[in-house]
Amino acid sequence: MRVGILYSRIRRDEKLLLSELRDRDHEVVKIDVRKQQFNISEAPEAFTDLDIVVDRCLATSRSVYATKFAKAYDVPVVNGPEVAETCADKVKNSLALVDAGVPTPDTDVAFTKDAALESIEDFGYPCVLKPVVGSWGRLMAKIDSRSAAEAILEHKETLGHYEHKIFYVQEFVDKPGRDIRVLAVDGEPIAAMVRSSDHWLTNAAKGAETNEFELDDRALELVEKASAAVGGGLLGIDLMEVGVSQSDTRDASGDEPRAEDYTVHEVNHTVEFKALNEVTDVDVPAAVVDWLESKAASESDAEVTA
Ligand SMILES: Nc1ncnc2c1ncn2[C@@H]1O[C@H](COP(=O)(O)OP(=O)(O)O)[C@@H](O)[C@H]1O
Ligand SMILES: [Mg+2]
């Protein structure tokens, strides 16, 4: 197949993907989105005869627009623009999860400092303030007191970009010093890991320790639902364990305490997988390419029948 890759920087994740595609003799067209002019009616040269295009843009805004254009040029794109749009925005992400009946941390959105402060006081301390658009744990605030809340809100309101004037306030989940990242294709997990840290942010990008994690039936069910909630595709689903806190210790047999349930805090659409590939025996890039092949094949079947 002829596969386009939308990118701005080739990271280790993209390298893994490219080498797997080339090993299988697929033709790869690298599309550096910084160099493209996306015409509204005519597809650029790079989009000609592609069987599928994979969005690997780092910047969310580029992801959202580049995938819209791919779709407009009638090139099958993963993940699609609607998925990108939902996942790129934490408000849309949360609404989609709730709509699909997936447990997710309770959240308020407010447009002014005073309204946000009221939400914060209602949730109590600590609670969490997140940027609506962002990743890698950046600009996240765990708020421990009213005075901290006032300061952070004032900073955001005065210094922030307009996106930071949408205040996303969330209950703090007393998770056991770790969260779970599942890489899934259309709701089917490829592999999963836990990210552990003494810091409340357990993103791999923040230096959390990563280990493979085996999903139980409940987690599998939630991964499938969370994926469908945002429209499916190649996704990174983030879950926290509920009912087992940081202070719970291993029992006498050395077994870890098991979670009573999970809560899904977000679904990511241009997911990194290098860390996961290192902790699991699963060949992650191979599984991703398997899925891309099946996706491209089903798209071309659909075209024949159309
Ligand atoms: N409500 C919460 N309670 C406790 N910890 C949280 C909560 N939300 C997020 N976290 C921690 O912060 C990390 C980053 O949060 P997340 O919503 O995934 O933002 P990002 O898009 O920056 O990854 C999570 O991996 C988790 O460790
Ligand atoms: Mg995250």
TrEMBL record:
Keywords: Amino-acid biosynthesis, ATP-binding, Ligase, Magnesium, Metal-binding, Nucleotide-binding
The UniProt record lists the keyword Ligase: yes
One Gene Ontology term from the biological process aspect of the record: lysine biosynthetic process
Cofactor(s) required, per the database record: Mg(2+)
Pathway annotation from the record: Amino-acid biosynthesis
GO CC, any one term: cytoplasm
GO MF annotation list: ATP binding; coenzyme F420-2 alpha-glutamyl ligase activity; metal ion binding
Annotated ATP-grasp domain residues: 94-293
Stated family: Belongs to the RimK family. LysX subfamily.
Protein name from the UniProt record: Lysine biosynthesis protein LysX
Source organism per UniProt: Haloarcula rubra
